[in-house]
C-alpha cells in the first residue's frame, strides 16, 4: 500500500473530525480538590523506626495527622523516606492503636485500663524500689561503686545528642551500669 504524507494527514484529520462530531469545542471547567495540607499545622519530627534518624514533616489539622512527608531540609534524608518511614502515618491513624494505658497485674489474666498519672507514678515507684533493694555502695574489695546491676537502660537512636546526654546523666545518677543505645546495636 502506497500512503503519502498528504494522504495520511487527510485520513487522520477526517477521523478526528468524524470522531468529534457532536462534541463541544468550548473550554470545560477544571475541577481540583483543595490540597490536603491546606490549613494544617506543620511539625518536624524524626522517624521512629531505625537508627538513621530521617527527618519528617507532619501535617495536622484539628489534632489529627492528615499528611506526612520527608523533610527536604533535613541533612540525613533530604526529603526522602523509606517504605517504613512513609508508613508512620499508620501509627497515628490506626483504629487498633492503643490510646489508653493497659495494665495486667502479676498472675492476672485480665487487662485493666489505667490513667497515665497512675502508670507514670507506678513506673517511678518500681524503679525506685528496685534501685533501693539492689543498690551496691561498695564492692567486695571495699571500693565505693554506688551502683545497681538490677536495672538496664536502652536508649533510642532517634534521640539527638542533647537528649542522649540528659538521659545518660539520669541513668548514671540512679547508679545504672548497663546503659546502651539502640544505634550501636
Protein model, in words:
By secondary structure, the protein is α+β, with helices and mostly antiparallel strands. It has two domains: 52 residues, Phosphorylase Kinase, domain 1, CATH 3.30.200.210; 84 residues, no CATH class. The chain is 30% helix and 26% strand. A three-stranded antiparallel β-sheet has the order 1-2-3, with no helix packed on it. A three-stranded mixed β-sheet has the order 6-7-8. The termini are far apart. The model has no long low-confidence stretch (mean pLDDT 86).
- Beta-sheet strand percentage? 25-35%
Q: Care to count the β-strands?
A: 8
The biggest sheet, with number of strands, parallel, antiparallel or mixed sense and barrel status, is:
3 strands, antiparallel
* H-E string: HEEEHHEEHEEHE
Q: Treating each run of at least 4 consecutive H or I residues as one helix, how many helices?
A: 5
Mean pLDDT: 86
| Rough outline | elongated
Q: Assign the structural class, choosing from mainly alpha, mainly beta, alpha/beta, alpha+beta, or little secondary structure.
A: alpha+beta
Summed up, the domain count is: 2
Q: Could you tell me the radius of gyration in angstroms?
A: 31 Å
Task: Kindly report how far apart the N and C termini lie.
Answer: 72 Å
Strand order of the largest sheet: 1-2-3
